[in-house]
Fold this sequence. Notes:
With 140 residues, this protein is an all-alpha fold. Among the domains are: 4-47; 65-102. The protein has helices spanning 4-16, 21-28, 34-47, 65-74, 80-88, 92-102, 118-139.
Amino acid sequence: IMKSKDFQNLVLSKHQNGDTPTKIYRDLKGGIGRGTVFRWCTMINKTGSIQLTHSQDHTRVIRTKTMVQKRLRRKKKVSIRKLAKNELDISRTSVCRILQTDLGLRAYKLRIEPPMTDLHKVKESNLQIELVTISTKNKH
C-alpha cells in the first residue's frame, strides 16, 4: 500500500515528465481521486511542488462518547438535531451514531396511562387468580 507522500512524489515526477493529469490518474488506476490529481497538478504549476499545509476539508471534531455524555448530563431533554448543531457542531448522523451504537440509547415516547378504575382492578385480580390456578394444575 502506497502512502500519500509516495503518491505525491509519483504525481510530481509524472507531471514534470509532461504527463497530463488525466493520464496520471489513469496510470494510478484509481489509487487516489481524479480531483486530487488535478489539484496537485495545479499546485505544481503554481508553486513547483505539492505543499499540503492544511487540510482541504473542514476541521473535524473528534467523535467521542465523553463529549456527548457531558452534554447530555448538562441538558437532559435536548433533541438530537439541537445537540448536533448548537452543542457539538458535528453532523446529526454522527450524534445519532454515538447515541445509538456507542452509548446504547434509544428514542422513546413517554406515555401517561390513566389510573385504573375499580372494574379494571377486579378484572386484573380475576386474571391473576386464573393464571395461578392454571400454573398449579400444570405442575401436578
